[in-house]
Amino acid sequence: MAATPPPLNAPRGPVTPPGVWGPIQINSHLHTLKILFYVLGAIELCIAVVLIPVAFAGYAAESNSMNPGAQPMLLIALLLAASLVFACVGALSFVAAKAMGQRQRHQLCLIAAGVSCLAGALGIALGVYAFIVLLKPEVKTVFAPPGSTVVA
């Protein structure tokens, strides 16, 4: 047994330089991103489902209108197209969240981060956070298949 104990503030393992994330930080950020992409995808899919009855209600209201310039088919087409866009972006968010959980398809995750910026304030904040995390060299190495080299 040593006569003097080791100092309390001594490093306990390999020391990473400032600004470089360790494996625990990388896993934590990717887990947070995975949850946030699932939440964003669920919100977008809910909006897509709600827009479908709104489209038909708008069509019914416009077709009974006394206004000769009313275009009920244009209204239903626009709302159904918006519902389709929300459903596609929501599905992309779910696929990206699953890919982040499995640490696969880095390019798809970057594309989903860019597309999430279309979802308003929540999507922009999530997209910026995702870009900050996904573009770190340490995170790119986590997504790389075993035995390959990553050019940062």
Instruction: Give the strand content.
Output: under 5%
Distinct helical segment count: 5
Helix proportion of residues, in percent?
55-70%
Low-confidence stretches: none
Gap from first CA to last CA: 46 Å
Helix and strand content put the structural class at mainly alpha
The beta-strand count equals 0
Rg from Cα: 24 Å
- Cα shape: elongated
The largest sheet, given as strand count, sense and whether it forms a barrel, is: none
| Overall average residue pLDDT | 85
What's the helix-strand series?
HHHHH
Which assembly state applies to the chains in this document? Answer: single chain
Give an overview in words:
It is a single chain. With 152 residues, this protein is mostly helical. The protein is built from 5 helices and no strands. It is elongated, with a radius of gyration of 24 Å. It starts with 22 loop residues before the first helix and ends in a 9-residue tail after the last helix.
